[in-house]
Amino acid sequence: MCGIAGVLGPPEHTSALIPLMLQAITHRGPDDSGEFVGPELAFGTTRLSIIDPDGGHQPMWAPENQVGIVYNGEIYNAREINEELIAQKREFITQCDTETVLQLYQAGGHSALSEMFRSLRGMFGLAIYDIPRNRLVLARDPFGIKPLYYRLSTDGTLISFGSEIKSLLTDPKCPRVLNHDALVSYLTLQYNPLSETFFSGIYRLPPGSFATVDLALGQIDVHRYWEYEFDDTTREDEDALAEQIRCTVEDSVTHHLISDVPVGAFLSGGIDSAIIVSLAQQQLQRAGLDPLKTFTLGFDSLNEFEQAREIADLLGTDHHEITITADDFTNALPDIAWYFDEPVANPSAISLYFLAQTAREQVSVVLSGEGADELFGGYRIYREPFDLDHIRRLPRPVRAFAARLARSRINFRGRNYLRRSTTTLNDRYFGGGYGTFTPGDVHRLLQTTTLESHFRPGDALAAHDGNFDALPESRRMQLIDINYWLISDTLAIADRMSMAHSLELRVPFLDIDVARISTHIPDSLKYRDGTTKWLLRRAFRGQLPHSTQQRQKLGFPTPLRRWITHNPDAMLALIRNSVRLRDLIDMTYVEELASQHAAGRIDASRRFLLLLMLAAWLDAFMDGDVSLPPSRR
């Protein structure tokens, strides 16, 4: 695992800049670093050594130094690919998967990039410098597990790229201009779903995409090589699908355990992490190795310790529990915002930050359960369309009356149900974090002259795929979350909070083979018996405690509401003291929310977390040196 960075231009410019770019991301790779400065491009890495620690130095070059690569990630089918390349008489110098990608490119991937990247089973963000073709290739894994950003000039030519935005901001010529569209969407969705980041002129490379850059012109062309699509052409029965899921997830865990350094796992009280831990522990036991180290985090007043302990005791893992306080949270928030690059207001980020910190004391790699909910239908909101069908089956005049009643000023029990049943999906579902601030709230908060609309994921997907609106609503909800919530919230949290402590986090459910199996599952096998992820639960029935099999998702619950209620001055100090935030929003409105929260009339904790992260981000990035976290400045 590494951090990568690169910048275009003559050596007199790039030779001084590339060390600064790498310094800003040393947390992604503290074990080694390397850089190359050429006549048109400089690039380099900071390395966290996981596979072949002695042989994986980067940049790595093909024979005769004509093609070089900087690479962040893990390719789990590297051994299989290597065997195929060796059969083609290609010779390997290292055991590192970085060389796998380089050799694959040399063997013909340079002329068939889509096919090459589709053949990789893993997570990656990479750059290949092809000197004979005077070309740069940037690429990102199918789900966007690993990040990759790039900066464009005003005329659209590439200036620089890197694993994290802060690396690009070390260039003194890089303007720090707040992207207003990203801000508006963040205030409502709790993350930025746009391709352009919070910094105008800096973009994220989309998941499942590669970009080619003509170095003579600096022109960048982005191509999609993979995207998630439901597939109803294969109609396996329930038993066959369950067996395929079990075997494929088990095989994924086997591949995700490949490492030359210690591997552990995060363990909550839910079924996703329990499946991963169960399979990993079984494989370690069969190999005669020490028990898997597992880690659970909680708070004095809110935790899943008992549920996680039940699983750990059954499986015999080496289990560890971590407890954090409100002071831990407030003290760490400025650094957390810095590691994120863009504000993300999901409470689970706080938990994951401290969980990764403790895990890194004992292991260098952890397995985690992200992605199972999106692929297998785990969020309870996905069941909503089936519940709303009770109204939709009524005669049209009755539905019309229900719609008028739902939008009237009359308050009655079930009004929200009626309103949602008579609202189109694209108008009511925007992903996991929607509703933090409504468009009207944003209008008042930013004191804008007009009511601004946030980004609408359903509309964007419909514009991209003409068949999107014809899909069942539950599937459209999954696609919204896979393409936006998963990438910009869940996986951003997983990557940034783990790499903040130089810990590699692996997600076996987001293996490309597991994803392919999930595309075949009909809704009738996702939602059954009052539960979600029904077929995934069935596939592992008998391997886990019955209580775990039935438990609904909790995520990483955080007692934020109680903290703010009990000590509002300490919890909200960052909001009130941020000069940058005060210049941006209406603080009178914020104080009104604080008063109503204190009186118990509303729960504004999610809105306060959003503003806390925004304040910390503004303070960390809009002024001064961004190469160090606030606690080290």
Q: Please report the distance between the alpha carbons of the first and last residues.
A: 26 Å
Query: In the CATH scheme, what's the topology name of the largest domain?
Result: Glutamine Phosphoribosylpyrophosphate, subunit 1, domain 1
Number of helices: 28
Largest sheet: 6 strands, antiparallel
CATH architecture of the largest domain: 4-Layer Sandwich
What class do helices, strands and sheet pairing give? Answer: alpha+beta
Explained architecture:
A 6-stranded antiparallel beta sheet has the order 2-3-1-9-8-10. Helix content is 43%, strand content 15%. The chain has 28 helices and 17 strands. With 633 residues, the chain is of the alpha+beta class. Helix 9 links the parallel strand 14 (293-299) and strand 15 (318-324). It starts with a strand and ends in a 12-residue tail after the last helix. The chain folds into 4 domains: 2-224, Aminohydrolase, N-terminal nucleophile (Ntn) domain (Glutamine Phosphoribosylpyrophosphate, subunit 1, domain 1, 4-Layer Sandwich); 238-378 and 479-550, HUPs (Rossmann fold); 382-437 and 450-471, no CATH class; 560-622, no CATH class. The radius of gyration is 24 Å and the shape is globular.
